[in-house]
Amino acid sequence: MQFAIALLVVLAIACSIGSFVTQGQSFNQYAAQYSERAAAFIIALGLDDAFHSWWFILINAFLCCNLLFCNVIRLPQILKRVKTDRDAGSVTEAAADISAPGVNDPNDFFEKMRHSKPAASVTSDEKDILYSPKNTAGSWGAWICHIGILLLILGFSLGQFLHQEYAVYGVPGDAKPIGDTGYVLQIDGFEVGLRDDDTVEQYTADITVYDVNHSDGGSSQSAEISVNNPAKLFGMKFYQNSTGWAARVSVTENGEPLQDKVLCAGEYLAVQDKPDLVIYFNAFYPDFYVEPGNAPVTLSGKLNNPGYLYSVYYQGNMLGMNVLMGSEPLTIDEYTVVFSEPQSYTVIQVKQDRFAWLAFIGGIVILAGLVLAFYVLPEKVWAVKETDWQWTVYGSCRKGGALFKERFEEAAEEFTRQRETEDQHGSAKT
């Protein structure tokens, strides 16, 4: 137990460090944020990816081994305890937490304590005994809870290291493969919900996923997803991750249409007749504004003054970079490029975790263990025959003893009142 507590403290510290240090950055980024020495320290210890580092895995491995060995060691003790609790020979007067002498009908007392019909036996000094244990399953509470924690850690760890994650982005009408899964994601619709003050309230996408490898030529499943409302299709989870701007890029050659394609900001288009000539769509500003000497900004999210930031490359060398306003054309020799139809594109994150079920089972097992540990309290009630007509009833409860004693005393008082009432009726008849 002491080792487990020490491991949990170390694990909490490790999680705190992983939360404090920004994950997944480069050496230069850490050096700019902290210092070169700190950046080298972060990279050397794997703090840039703390939750997948060797030392974090080692801590979790030790914790899993600790939980497993603790349960293995405790199993014989629990089996012995449960067996002892069911054995009338294990109870003695000294083992009782409370007693009620002078009971002439012990079976009635057992009923008042809500115990099952007692089993009859004989004590070592040849006295008759009635014995009824209850809630013996409660002895397994902590043991089952530890098993659940172990399953939860294993399920989460395996899911983290073996899960597959993809990002698919595009505008309505686009259909793109989901990595190498054999599935295709089609974006049927995308809507940006605005509040009255024009701030974003919600991003919502309608998607359809096709199984192109299905034997009948391709089955499909559809769903609507939004921020914090993912959908599960074909065993994968789809999240509305983020959004950005896209625009239609049209290229003509000597006035004749040559190419027409929707580009998301950050994408490029190679001219069909001259592939060494590349048009790069850097960014879009729906309400373009710039002050001399400063970077351009957008004053709002409305399409009041659309500006398209572009770059032109030829054979890998930049020819120029500028902003096109509205439908302003860009002329490069015999080619004319026009940006138009600005629209929002969606980024959908796809996760496939084949061990989520194990973590889910672990959580259920933990809850079951907690219920057994805190609500199913093992208790024993037994009655020993002292004379031909009188018994002494004893009770014992390892957990929740105060509540058990309260119930026992209430049953004894009720039994005493009932006996006094019966005695009064008997005297009246006489």
Shape: elongated
Q: How do the SSEs run, as a string of H and E?
A: HHHHEHEEHEEEEEEEEEEEEEEEEHEEH
Taking the sheet with the most strands, its summary is: 6 strands, antiparallel
* Distance N to C terminus: 67 Å
Would you count the extended β strands for me?
A: 21
Rg from alpha-carbon coordinates: 37 Å
**Beta-strand content estimate:** 35-45%
Structural class: alpha+beta
Parts with pLDDT < 50 across at least 5 consecutive residues = none
Q: Figure out the total of helices.
A: 8
Description:
The chain has 430 residues and is α+β, with helices and mostly antiparallel strands. The chain has four domains: 1-50, no CATH class; 86-135 and 377-429, no CATH class; 164-241, no CATH class; 245-348, no CATH class. Helices cover 34% and strands 37% of the residues. The chain contains eight helices and 21 strands. The chain has helices spanning 2-20, 27-33, 36-45, 54-85, 106-112, 141-162, 356-375, 401-429, and strands at 98-103, 119-122, 128-134, 164-170, 175-177, 183-194, 200-211, 219-226, 231-233, 236-253, 256-264, 268-270, 277-285, 288-289, 297-298, 307-314, 317-325, 330-332, 335-352, 379-385, 391-397. The strands form five sheets. Strands 4, 9, 10, 11, 18 and 19 form a six-stranded antiparallel β-sheet that branches. Strand 20 and strand 21 (391-397) form a beta hairpin. The longest helix is centred in the N-terminal third of the chain and has 32 residues, at 54-85. The two termini are 67 Å apart.
Question: Can you tag this structure with a few keywords?
Answer:
430 residues, alpha+beta, five-stranded antiparallel β-sheet, 8 helices, elongated
